[in-house]
Write a sequence for this structure.
């Protein structure tokens, strides 16, 4: 195995593949189960396990994901870590310039991606999960309560996957209808992942942690 590996969430596989192809890299990829992406405490445990299982010859871990609700907080390893300075992976994919903004999402907006990974967390999926536990009326009530303060569904167009295809459009429209929201497309990019893979680790955009260094809860406020 190479001395550098890429560790990322399975929800970003399409974006990781696209970034590797564009940058001409072929780093081994370690995927963390994408089903934990909205459960930071459990995601943190998965990350720790993944780091512990890396071979000794691995010296650098390129983290193809974000701070993710504190999932990377105070994780200590003997590897060098390079982590995007953003609050979550959606902010990372909304990044299109050199402005170091750790949070880019707007309040009341639900962001979805074009690929199937976006279906892990969507109104349709949540409703189906509620229906497995409750009757239809209760499932509907819970969904309405969860999304009561949302106004818009934003589909992030990163250029990875065809978010404007008929299939994706219909799916996005259905999700928006389910929570009584408008639908719009917003520009995004794969820029931060491409920078990560190509070694363009500007201090304003990435944390570079040497072995034993850790991120704390106020890390995103240090910009």
């Amino acid at each position: 195995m190479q001395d550098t590996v890429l560790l990322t969430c399975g929800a970003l596989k399409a974006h990781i593949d696209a970034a590797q192809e564009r940058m001409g890299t072929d780093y081994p990829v370690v995927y963390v189960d994408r089903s934990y992406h909205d459960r930071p405490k459990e995601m943190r445990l998965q990350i720790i396990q993944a780091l512990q299982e890396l071979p000794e010859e691995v010296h650098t871990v390129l983290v193809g994901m974000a701070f993710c609700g504190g999932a990377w907080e105070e994780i200590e390893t003997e590897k060098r870590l390079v982590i995007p300075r953003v609050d979550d992976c959606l902010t990372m994919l909304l990044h299109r310039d050199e402005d170091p903004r750790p949070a880019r999402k707007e309040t009341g907006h639900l962001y979805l991606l074009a690929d199937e990974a976006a279906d892990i967390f969507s109104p349709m999926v949540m409703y189906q999960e509620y229906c497995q536990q409750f009757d239809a009326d209760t499932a509907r009530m819970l969904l309405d309560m969860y999304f009561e303060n949302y106004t818009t569904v934003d589909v992030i167009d990163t250029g990875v996957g065809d978010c404007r295809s008929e299939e994706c459009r219909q799916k996005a429209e259905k999700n928006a209808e389910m929570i009584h929201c408008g639908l719009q497309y917003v520009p995004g990019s794969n820029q931060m992942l491409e920078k990560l893979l190509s070694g363009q680790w500007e201090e304003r955009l990435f944390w570079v942690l040497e072995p034993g260094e850790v991120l704390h809860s106020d890390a995103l406020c240090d910009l």
Notes: Residues 40-52 form the longest helix (13 residues). The chain has a mean pLDDT of 89.
